[in-house]
Write a structure and sequence with these properties.
single chain, 606 residues, alpha/beta, Rossmann fold, D-Maltodextrin-Binding Protein, domain 2, six-stranded mixed sheet, 21 helices, disordered N terminus
């Protein structure tokens, strides 16, 4: 291949990545909250009602907030009201509320209204805080949890004639022949995509449903049920089929969509737990639910269909919760009540339907787009599961932390000279990154395997572009060593990004462990700078070709390369392309003050 053709091919990959707009920093949300389109609008002297909302409804609530702010209804005793939604993951917001919403510069303004995807999160907050910080909210709209599957795969299992559920997932996941057991060996192993239940409502509801399916119950789940051997075994079998976790369903949907462009959607994932609304968005050509400027919808080659588990499922009810915290005053509470009433009006509930949600107002019937052509069934689900008590919800999260699939992860950190630049507060970029990486180590469990590389130019040795400081091994045995090695690093020389991405990927592919989630986390604050700028085009094209060949050609050995764009100078486009080529995700920490939250979000994939 000529240099020009290599570059064109690589450019096409990069453009494809941008076209699907991977929502890596939005809820069901990774890292710090993204600004809404109202964030830059001057609220004047109005009462500001900040909202923390889950990402699947940020576009809808931004539209509704804009209409409300311009209406005569936005008035409290002669003073105007300005509602300002932000996208913050349900689980991340829950933790921030319990912790008193620290670091507004990184986490955004503390909210007056919290609208997680489901009311269960309020129970978790109140249980963990041992006080009622999140009173009962008013449901805004509904969407059930479904198991999304590519239509040919669902049909191979008997859909739509045969009811399917969690037991079918366990059976197929445990079969060593995978999809070959139903006549499709070309699809490889059966793989589940599932978000981390500490962050994402779909992940939380999926985990709740696992335990209900394991016990044969549809209500009354108890803490004792979680410890029953049959329940532990059933949940373990489900988790063992997971591709990787994650903080957002959009990671899976965007990766599926990108694979669909390449004709490989059937080898990325077999089934992903998402909300019904997400299936509608995907099939309408908008996998993350938000069309950015210049982005056009593209109907996928292979549509998804919604499996409503025969054992039952849960609804996300999207409550409007006016927080009872020290940062919410009476005037803000009164203003929030006005907006809560506004969104329940029939004309606004009709907008809910337009966005693919089921209205909460009985005066607005379910209709298009919740129709069969979009892969959903308005007559489903026929069985609903009870939301467990707060005590059981917290127990489920604690249990999942032990039962989740174990990981094998290589941390690859940039220590180039630009990492020595000072940030606000007098710390360097490297100081902030080191502290965040060390803190993130606590998120792994002892049986996870973690290793550490650093990269720069002029490091010496056989390959001067990287140095292995700690081989991949059980973190329970070497967490202190990894932390000490991270802390000892100093900034130096250039940024051989393409070389280290290639070498680390090949190394992890050779050492692949089929019983674990295999991944790389690569952080850099710059662009490829290895002293050979004339080779950049060829290097990038070769790298993308290697990553895609490994991801698609070795479908039984998926190694995900997650990237972190750190600081304003990081090559975000290239890092997105690198991550997308391995069906992973790229995270944006352009504001170095947010690196703690971003590291937390990245590690949630494991």
């Amino acid at each position: 291949m000529t240099r020009r053709h290599r570059w064109v091919g690589a450019a096409i990959v990069a453009v494809a990545v941008l076209s699907i707009v991977a929502a890596c920093t939005e809820d069901e949300g990774s890292g710090p909250p993204e600004d809404s389109s109202l964030e830059g609008v001057d609220p004047g002297d109005c009462i500001v009602v900040d909202m923390a909302v889950s990402s699947e409804k940020i576009a809808l609530l931004t539209d509704l907030a804009g209409e409300f702010n311009d209406s005569d209804l936005a008035d409290v005793e002669g003073r105007c009201v300005f509602v300002r939604p932000r996208s913050v993951s349900s689980g991340a917001a829950a933790t921030l509320i319990v912790d008193g919403w620290p670091s507004p510069e990184a986490n955004g303004a503390p909210p007056v209204i919290w609208s997680p995807a489901a009311s269960a999160w309020a129970g978790i907050v109140n249980e963990r805080a041992d006080e009622t910080l999140a009173p009962a909210g008013t449901p805004f709209m509904l969407t059930p949890l479904v198991i999304a599957m590519p239509q040919p795969m669902a049909e191979a299992l008997g859909w739509p004639q045969e009811p399917l559920g969690f037991a079918d997932l366990v059976t197929l996941g445990n079969d060593p022949d995978g999809w070959g057991s139903v006549g499709h060996p070309e699809w490889g192993p059966f793989r589940i995509g599932k978000t981390n239940p500490n962050y994402s409502t779909s992940g939380l509801n999926f985990t709740i449903a696992e335990y209900y399916a394991a016990t044969g119950k549809s209500a009354g789940l108890t803490v004792e049920d979680l410890d029953r051997p049959a329940a532990v075994d059933f949940a373990t079998q489900i988790e063992s089929s997971v591709v990787h976790y994650g903080d957002i369903t959009m990671t899976f949907l965007n990766n599926w969509f990108a694979a669909d462009v390449r004709g490989t959607s059937l080898t990325y994932a077999s089934a992903v737990a998402v909300e019904e609304k997400s299936v509608i968005d995907y099939n309408r050509g908008n996998p993350d639910g938000v069309l950015s400027p210049g982005e056009t919808a593209r109907v996928p080659r292979v549509p998804l269909v919604s499996i409503y588990p025969e054992e039952g499922t849960l609804f996300s009810d999207n409550p409007f919760i006016i927080l009872d915290t020290e940062w919410v005053d009476a005037e803000e509470r009164a203003a929030a009540e006005l907006f809560r009433e506004f969104v329940q009006l029939p004309e606004n509930q009709e907008q809910v339907l337009e966005y693919g949600f089921r209205p909460n107002n009985p005066a607005v019937p379910v209709a298009d787009p919740i129709v069969a052509k979009n892969g959903v069934d308005p007559a489903q689900p026929t069985a609903e599961l009870e939301v467990p008590s707060p005590e059981v919800l917290v127990g489920i999260l604690d249990s999942w932390a032990e039962l989740r699939k174990e990981a094998r992860v290589l941390l690859v950190l940039d220590i180039s000279g630009s990492m020595g630049e000072l940030e606000e507060g007098g710390q360097t970029r490297l100081d902030l990154a080191k502290a965040a990486a060390i803190s993130a180590l606590d998120q792994f469990k002892d049986r996870d395997e973690v290793g550490l590389w650093v990269f720069s130019t002029e490091l010496g040795g056989a390959d001067p572009t990287y140095r292995e400081l700690v081989p991949v091994g059980p973190i329970g045995d070497q967490q202190t060593l990894i932390a000490e090695q991270i802390d000892a690093q100093l900034p130096t020389a250039g940024t051989p990004l393409f070389d280290v991405a290639d070498t680390s990927y090949r190394t992890m592919l050779e050492q692949y462990d089929p019983t674990r989630i295999n991944a790389i986390v690569l952080l850099t604050d710059g662009q490829n700078d290895d002293g050979r700028p004339e080779d950049d085009d060829d290097q990038f094209a070769d790298l993308i070709e290697t990553l895609q060949a490994g991801s698609e050609g070795s479908s039984s050995r998926p190694v995900r390369l997650f990237t972190i764009s750190y600081g304003a100078d990081a090559d975000t486009i290239t890092l997105k392309a690198i991550a997308q080529a391995t069906s992973a995700a790229s995270y944006n920490a352009s504001n170095p003050a947010t690196i703690n939250q971003v590291f937390t979000a990245v590690i949630s994939n494991f």
